[in-house]
Amino acid sequence: MSDLLHSPRATDIATHTCEASPVAFVTLFDESLHTFWVSPGFTQLTGYTPDEVIGRKVSQLLHGPETDADMISQLRTQIALKQNFSGELLSYTKNQTPSGCT
User: Fold this and answer.
1) CA-CA distance, 11 to 73, in Å (whole number)?
2) Residue 7: its pLDDT value, please?
3) With contact defined as beta carbons under 8 Å apart, do 54 and 80 qualify?
4) Global pTM value
């Protein structure tokens, strides 16, 4: 799985997805949840540059005081099970403006 995640193919798939939807909020991360790729839509919506995000956990950047802890727990469970997550999560931009993520 790790080889697939870090492969050029995974990045190509994400890039093509984002070209089809320029505001797609996409991050690719490894098993320890450290980010290794973000979409242009991610940077546009959050205000973070790729250099500010790569190697960090998105949760360190986007979660804030009003982010629902139960929803974060559900998200982490789905990630651990390698399953899709569907829900709405209040996140924060680089300048700490609340922003909803679906």
Assistant:
1) 27
2) 60
3) no
4) 0.73
